[in-house]
Amino acid sequence: MSNVTRPEHISQAEWDLRIKLAYCYHLVDFFGWTETIFNHISARRPEVEGEYLVNPFGLNYTEITPANLIKVDVNGNKLDDSPYDGNPAGFALHGAIHGAREDVHCVIHTHTNEVSAVAMKEDGFSHDNFYGAQLYGRVGYHTFEGITLFAEEKSRMLASLGDKHVLVLRNHGIAVGEYDIERCMFLLWTVQRAAEIQLAAGAMGGKDVILPEAIGEKCAGLTKMLVDESGFADKWFAAMARKMEAERGACW
User: Which residues does the UniProt record annotate as the domain Class II aldolase/adducin N-terminal (predicted)?
Assistant: First the structure.
C-alpha cells in the first residue's frame, strides 16, 4: 500500500488508519458501489474517544486521500480546519453507531441498486444463497423515517441494529459495521454479493432450494472464524488494493 509521507501533527497509528480508510473509499468506487458524492465511510480515531474520520463532502471517492479526511465527533461537529464539511445526512447514523458500539470501529453506508432493491422487500435478505447464508443472524432492519438527519432517530436505529453488524435501512440501503476497516469492507462485499445473487435468482423461473437454519448458523459461524483466525478480510483487502492499483495506478 501507499507510503505517502505522514504529517508531523498526525500520529503513526492515525496515519495508518487514514491510509486504509482512503483505500476503502477508492475500493468502493473501484467496485462501482458509489452514489456520486453521497454516502459515507467512517473509522474511529485510534486512541481518541468519541471521534471518527469521514469523507470531505463534495469530493468524489477517488479524490479522497489520507490527508484530506476530516475529523468529527459523534455529534458531527468538525474538529479540524479543513475547508470541507461532512455530509450531515451521515452524522446521525455514523455518530450513533460509533457512540454506542465499542466493537464497531468502521461503518460503511451504501445503496447500490441490488442492496436498495432488497431493502425494498418485506422479507429482506434471503439466507438461501452462499453469501446470504454467511449473514445468518447478523442482519437488523430499520423502518424508513426519511433522510437520516435528526438525532431523535439515533436510539431507534441502534435498537434496530442491536448486536448485529448489518443494518438494512428499509426502502433505502444498508450500513455495515465491523471491528476494523478490512473486516467492514469484506462484510460489505459479502452483503453486496448476497443481494446480487438474490436478485438474479428472483428473476429466474423455478423454485429456490431453501437452506435449513442450522446451515445458516454454521455458515455464519465459519465465516466469523475464518475472518478472525485466518485473516481472510486482511488478505482480501490487501489483494483488492493491489488489483485496483494495478489497473488504475497509484491512488494519490
Answer: 19-199
